[in-house]
Please model this.
Amino acid sequence: MPATEVLVVDPFTPDAHRIARAATCLRAGGLVAFPTETVYGLGAHALDPVAVGRIFAAKGRPASDPLIVHIASLEELAPLVSRIPASVVPLARRFWPGPLTMVLPRHAIVPDAVTAGLGSVAVRVPAHPVARALLAAAGIPVAAPSANLFSRPSPTRASHVLHDLDGRIDLILDGGSTEVGVESTVIDLTGSIAVVLRPGAVSVEALREVLGEVEVRETAQQGETGTPMTSPGLLSKHYSPLAPLTLYEGLPRAALDRLQADARAAEADGRTVGVLDFGGEQDPGTIATRLYAALRDLDDKRPDLILVRGCDTEAGLGRAIQDRLRRAAAGRIIRV
Ligand code: TXA
Ligand code: MG
Model:
């Protein structure tokens, strides 16, 4: 593959010629990274199994992990699904375009490469003007995972994409930093009760306002004071930092004291410590925006260990932030 081309576009009113070039590349089976409101996605023609296969090769992603199909509007959903559950239209009216991914009964037109052979397909309509312009110009559904190498944090800037995927993909549309910073909420609508599979940018509270009952699948359980979780294997497909990461939770003052004491003890032992402390920041939206870039910066410094204090609240975006950090901690959670 030739070198990866980077096209800078205005995030609000992207240049039509540059969008058209990226759209042509997608239609021809190429790989294009583009900004969404959450993180950068790595797009390919969703109905072309060869193109979709390239996504997995570029990311080093296991074929068992299904992709989200991005469409320009609700009107483009029908061909991809075998049935439209009753909750789809009210959810779409409230959250689309936006960071909500709906898992729906799949139509056979969607390749197995996209769904990992499941009977369902995940779909969303992104809100970012660059993503919307690209989907409209391409006129095809676009499969897109986050545009990072497997086990790295999701990219919130074009430079993160270039760092991970330079020479492995055709094109990057550089529309600046993404706004939300954590991925879309994934909700399974195939059963009688809606189930959140991945907490994300749309809060569970907001989903309950529309649907009433919503279950949340507990993916990353909290460890008791420092004890490992029962099934860390579940975490393997998420960001795993280069150094072991320990997450401090609980009463803010006590958690900070414990983190600082542990950092001093490790340094006295001659180890280098990377600290990420969002404890002083009260707004989960601000933490989410900065989270992945901060984790990348920490990894780049190659500390021997990483100590993190995340969000003090589980409400709203706090749930998604703590979910990502707990997965990265892989059971190393200190609750004080
Ligand atoms: O915000 C986002 O969702 C970003 C942007 C680019 O749209 N995309 C993203 O994709 O985060 P990815 O591949 O990193 O995460 C997709 C998630 C995975 O947890 C995957 O297991 C789940 O969606 N998923 C996809 N298809 C599914 C299906 N049919 N059933 C259950 N889960 C599915
Ligand atoms: Mg991802």
